[in-house]
Task: inverse folding
């Protein structure tokens, strides 16, 4: 636990450092109404997506279709406003979340029942969901004029200096974090990701939990779609394209192990904030924003490398501890070196 | 003892790869019969020109997936090499030198991936999602939103020219040659055997003296170099070097490789299946386009085909797999559970 | 309570895996308040029987009754729910969760709003450990727990589930003496609380020390059940082996030649220390010790699969590059590893590819169709491998035939030194004798053999010389005459009074 906490503290520290340095260069980055608002508002959508993705990744799966789900639900939101102008805002939002849930359930059902890797399945549904949106929308675009003023105001409105969308993201984060930490189901998600074979042997409801994780991921992508429509006011059929990689990047940077079992949604949320804050900070400190993606990529690689270094150091320490107190203490079989990750996908196959 | 349970030709026909080949043949015949203009010479020309980058990148990707790893950064390497090729040409370097330098840079990009995966032991999925962003970021950073154009006609025409009077573009020869090289590498050399062994059990391969790490490094370097070659082709084919060239190509490549019957778990796969997978996507694409169907529907078709190609054998083989699982005595079960 | 009604009763239970009958007729009757030993050689069917009791496998035939009611478990969870817990030698735990979470996973105590009551859970775990008399931090992650502690966690889980039948599958194989004593105290506590304990071991001294009843199995069938007091250890061994020991270990005396393998000061932090020994051509050297003492790790390091921190390995005068199995193979070293299915073979590959995977691939640049089959046919014939076809997957074969394939694969490289790690684990007695005859014959032809085995009788029956490893160090070297079971066990067991440095090397 202490290691996990340290990991998240590290990301938080990096985030503060980025904000601090940028603010020194240009005080308006933090100390202006617009700067403060952007700092909180920009990451809100990615945070919601990252929380959902973290839950899926913790179970040793991945959902690459989130960008397409966001696009589809964002378009659905706009479409509902045009086609059914009398619907209350809440109903529209719920409809989009429900649609996202359904799309997530499709992914989850295929992964859980056909026992095929989520990477392939969600790569396929990435195409399919995007194709559906493209076919449905065509070259059509939903503009701010098509959506109610009250809805669009949510995208920029602030309550006590905090943007509404940020509040939404914070509530989602708190709720999911609470679930993962304090419910039986939440702990089982970690157990499944930690060792899928052992989870099945222990009689855990693996399929139901996987369905739940994918459904939650889909629901949050649907919510992100609604937030996207409110925030940007325009939705084209390409909304959210390529976002899946940013989301997975945020989760990995936030310390959620790509092979499951460890990490927290708080870390994933911090990872999302760090990525987007760096993006905004680069131009301020004089680096053309063309280089944003390169920095993000370097950050992702750096984060997984760091995680490996920490893990290796820990297993070294355990090995040394074995030498320190031999009799009555511990004996262990197997190599001291950490197992190569190449084998992990095979373990999944063995469980199938 | 018999060496084979069935004659070789039966075994060759009853494979997962041949299913893709068969579907390809059916698709081609149906398209020729029902889609107006599909059997025209232009179809073949454009089909080959369009699939060339996908096919090129799919060749090393086949071997990487066969080891159980993946390289998602390939399209970014295509983009980066397109940019460096353009910039070096603009800077006055000869085209051959620019090509060589770009391919070298691609190899370096692949080596970075390979070192992180093989020697640092990081998961290739995460590493190459990172380097996907990194290499694309470098490409976009170097050129911004501008493009380098004005390559000599002899080169741009060469990229699209046909073999004398035939509908086949000149690049067909290069594609065939390279595909043959990779087919031999995978199917008839110790290296290829080791690649498949790593995919089936990297532990057992290590105990047989296979240098698993070096093998993976070589594969990622190959992937980078061939992707860079595809980047140069892409640049010449469209006459323009841009930072966002070939964005999203990695998904098409992975889809084609899996459609071609390579197991995402590693250990199974054949090159002719992958070539058929690439062609199948190309044929579906051009047939649907000729029918006036938009690219969106093609995406749906590709995505569905990908899901079905993985799920169907799983469902069909489900009974068989379960039976086999319960018939294998688990003398090493404690280890198997813990690994 | 020897006359109480049986808590667990198995009668004539059978189970086959494809062509291999792992269990022909398993019979076991366990009463409450009893510790019941189940003994037999490797491959006698004990583990299969345990897996049927624990719900991992479904039986093909026979009767299983719990408290007189017939049961048929569809999975381990069902067995657990019915009150049967199996403690495996290396329990599967969730490394990322804490010890407490591992114990209560899926049935955590809840507070209001179905939230997990962490304090109650931690207190419960602490109470369980206290009642077991062990000192374990309930908040530490399961990652990095010793095997002994993992077993304790499993036992704590079983008790919190109120399991009435606890089956311990060779729990002591990897434990130190102190840990074994702790485990025995725990087991006696369970017995006195009226639970039924099944204790699997092939260490007869432990059986005599702990158990009240003993059931012997051989070749997948029940042989006998007696009170421990009524049967001598010698009689038990006779029943377990069921044949003349000399027939099983056809050791041909040989004259050692040049030093083929020399290991000098090999050192690996946390695993083994200052390991030095020699193996001469024509000699079989046994490496004995407890599971987990570091024998396999030494073999892996010598072969180059694992790295080492200091020392060197010399084969036929050449110093090997550390961590480079290819160099070791080129110098004439071969390793038949401990785990056949994970390390020895690529089980999804054909017999032909497996046999030729090292020898042929080192010689040829291009592999034409048929080349592999040719080499494989030759070697499969020499070792009498039974397989449907050379292009059949190795998965489909029995353990004994798989082991022959591994041996064929390495013999095809014409090695100077052969290291075999548990060469006969989990294979039938007939093939076992074949493997022994083969090793003996190879040594007679001048091959240097280093043999690791957990089966003492195998080491003593086959080796010219025995090296004993304890906690990562070679603590004794005994020649054939001095290598008695007592001498080896005394050297191998930590905490034993005097270290036996006996025997002229």
Result:
């Amino acid at each position: 636990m202490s290691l996990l906490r340290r990991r998240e503290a590290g990301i938080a520290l990096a985030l503060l450092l980025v904000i601090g340095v940028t603010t020194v260069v240009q005080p308006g980055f933090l100390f202006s109404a617009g700067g403060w608002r952007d700092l909180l508002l920009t990451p809100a959508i990615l945070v919601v997506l990252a929380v959902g993705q973290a839950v899926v990744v913790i179970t040793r799966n991945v959902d690459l279709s989130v960008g397409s789900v966001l696009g589809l639900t964002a378009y659905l939101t706009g479409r509902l406003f045009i086609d059914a102008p009398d619907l209350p805002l809440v109903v529209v939002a719920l409809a989009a979340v429900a649609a996202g849930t359904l799309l997530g359930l499709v992914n989850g059902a295929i992964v859980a029942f056909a026992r095929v890797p989520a990477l392939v399945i969600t790569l396929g549904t990435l195409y399919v969901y995007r194709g559906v949106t493209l076919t449905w929308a065509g070259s059509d675009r939903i503009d701010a004029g098509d959506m109610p003023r009250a809805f669009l105001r949510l995208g920029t409105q602030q309550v006590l200096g905090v943007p509404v969308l940020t509040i939404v993201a914070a509530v989602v984060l708190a709720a999911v974090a609470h679930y993962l930490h304090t419910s039986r189901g939440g702990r089982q998600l970690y157990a499944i990701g930690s060792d899928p074979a052992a989870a099945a042997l222990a009689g855990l409801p693996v399929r139901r939990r996987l369905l739940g994780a994918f459904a939650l991921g889909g629901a949050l992508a649907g919510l992100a779609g609604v937030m996207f429509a409110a925030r940007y006011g325009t939705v084209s059929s390409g909304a959210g394209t390529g976002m899946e990689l940013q989301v997975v990047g945020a989760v990995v940077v936030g310390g959620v192990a790509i092979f499951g079992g460890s990490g927290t949604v708080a870390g994933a949320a911090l990872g999302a904030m760090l990525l987007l804050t760096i993006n905004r900070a680069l131009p301020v400190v004089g680096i053309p924003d063309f280089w944003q993606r390169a920095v993000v990529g370097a950050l992702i690689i750096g984060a997984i490398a760091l995680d490996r270094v920490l893990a290796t150091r820990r297993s070294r320490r355990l090995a040394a501890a074995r030498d320190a107190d031999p009799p009555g203490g511990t004996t262990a079989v197997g190599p001291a070196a950490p197992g190569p990750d190449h084998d992990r996908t095979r373990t999944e196959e063995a469980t199938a | 003892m018999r060496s084979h349970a069935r004659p070789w030709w039966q075994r060759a026909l009853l494979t997962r790869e041949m299913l893709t080949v068969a579907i390809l043949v059916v698709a081609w015949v149906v398209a020729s019969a029902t889609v107006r203009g599909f059997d025209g010479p232009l179809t073949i020309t454009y089909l080959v020109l369009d699939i060339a980058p996908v096919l090129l990148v799919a060749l090393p990707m086949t071997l990487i997936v066969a080891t159980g790893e993946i390289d998602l950064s390939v399209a970014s390497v295509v983009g980066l090499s397109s940019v460096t090729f353009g910039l070096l040409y603009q800077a006055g370097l000869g085209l051959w030198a620019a090509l060589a330098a770009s391919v070298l840079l691609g190899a370096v990009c692949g080596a970075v991936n390979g070192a992180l995966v093989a020697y640092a032991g990081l998961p290739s999925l995460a590493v190459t999602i990172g380097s996907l962003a990194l290499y694309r970021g470098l490409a976009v950073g170097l050129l911004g939103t501008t493009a380098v154009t004005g390559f000599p006609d002899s080169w741009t025409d060469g990229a699209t020219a046909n073999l004398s009077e035939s509908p086949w573009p000149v690049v067909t020869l290069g594609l065939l040659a390279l595909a043959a090289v990779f087919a031999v590498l995978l199917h008839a050399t110790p290296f290829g055997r080791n690649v498949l062994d790593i995919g089936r059990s990297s532990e057992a391969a290590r105990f047989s003296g296979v240098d698993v790490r070096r093998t993976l490094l070589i594969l990622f370097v190959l992937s980078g170099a061939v992707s860079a070659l595809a980047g140069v082709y892409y640049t010449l084919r469209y006459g323009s070097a841009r930072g966002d060239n070939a964005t999203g190509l990695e998904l098409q490549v992975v889809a084609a490789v899996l459609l071609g019957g390579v197991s995402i778990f590693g250990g199974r796969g054949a090159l002719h299946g992958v070539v058929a997978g690439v062609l199948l996507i190309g044929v579906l694409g051009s047939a649907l386009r000729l029918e006036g169907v938009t690219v969106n529907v093609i995406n749906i078709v590709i995505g569905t085909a990908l899901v079905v190609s993985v799920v169907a054998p799983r469902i069909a083989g489900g009974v068989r797999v379960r039976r086999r699982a319960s018939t294998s005595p688990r003398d090493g079960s404690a280890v198997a559970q813990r690994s | 309570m020897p006359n109480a009604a049986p808590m667990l009763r198995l009668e004539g239970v059978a189970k086959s895996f494809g062509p291999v009958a792992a269990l022909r007729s398993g019979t076991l009757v366990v009463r409450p308040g009893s510790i019941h030993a189940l003994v037999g050689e490797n491959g006698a069917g004990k583990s299969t029987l345990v897996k049927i009791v624990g719900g991992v496998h479904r039986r093909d035939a026979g009767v299983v009754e719990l408290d007189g009611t017939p049961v048929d478990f569809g999975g381990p969870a069902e067995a657990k729910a019915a009150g049967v817990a199996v403690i495996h030698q290396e329990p599967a735990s969730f490394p990322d969760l804490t010890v407490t979470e591992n114990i209560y996973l899926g049935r955590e105590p809840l507070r209001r709003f179905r939230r997990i009551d962490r304090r109650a859970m931690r207190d419960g775990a602490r109470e369980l450990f206290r009642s077991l008399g062990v000192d374990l931090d309930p908040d530490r992650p399961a990652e990095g727990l010793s095997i002994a502690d993992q077993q304790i966690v499993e036992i704590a889980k079983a008790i919190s589930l109120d399991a009435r039948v606890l089956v311990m599958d060779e729990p002591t194989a990897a434990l130190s003496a102190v840990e074994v004593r702790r485990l025995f105290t725990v087991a006696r506590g369970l017995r006195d609380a009226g639970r039924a304990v099944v204790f699997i071991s092939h260490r007869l001294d432990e059986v005599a020390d702990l158990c009240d009843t003993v059931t012997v199995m051989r070749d997948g069938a029940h042989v006998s059940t007696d009170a421990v007091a009524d049967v001598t250890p010698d009689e038990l061994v006779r029943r377990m082996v069921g044949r003349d020991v000399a027939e099983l270990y056809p050791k041909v005396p040989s004259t050692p030649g040049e030093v083929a393998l020399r290991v000098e000061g090999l050192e690996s932090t946390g695993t083994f220390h200052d390991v030095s020994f020699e193996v001469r051509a024509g000699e079989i050297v046994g490496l004995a010790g407890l599971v987990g003492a570091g024998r396999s790790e030494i073999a892996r390091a010598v072969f180059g699969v694992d790295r080492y921190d200091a020392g060197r390995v010399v084969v036929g005068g050449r110093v090997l590059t550390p961590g480079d199995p290819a160099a070791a193979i080129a110098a004439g070293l071969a390793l038949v590893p401990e785990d056949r299915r994970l390390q020895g073979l690529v089980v999804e590959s054909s017999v032909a590819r497996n046999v030729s995977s090292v020898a042929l691939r080192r010689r040829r640049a291009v592999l034409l169709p048929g080349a592999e089959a040719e080499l494989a046919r030759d070697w499969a014939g020499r070792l009498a491998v039974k397989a449907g076809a050379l292009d059949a997957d190795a998965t489909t074969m029995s353990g004994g035939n798989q082991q022959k394939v591994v041996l064929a694969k390495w013999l095809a490289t014409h090695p100077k030194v052969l290291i075999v790690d548990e060469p006969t684990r989990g294979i039938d007695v007939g093939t076992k004798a074949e493997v022994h005859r083969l090793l003996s014959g190879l040594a007679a032809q001048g091959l240097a053999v280093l043999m690791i085995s957990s089966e003492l009788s195998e080491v003593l029956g086959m080796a010219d010389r025995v090296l004993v490893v304890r906690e990562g160090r070679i603590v004794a070297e005994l020649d054939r005459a001095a290598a008695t079971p007592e001498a080896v066990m005394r050297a191998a067991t930590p905490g034993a009074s005097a270290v036996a440095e006996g025997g002229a090397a």
Observations:
- Chain B touches chain A through 62 residues (CB under 8 Å).
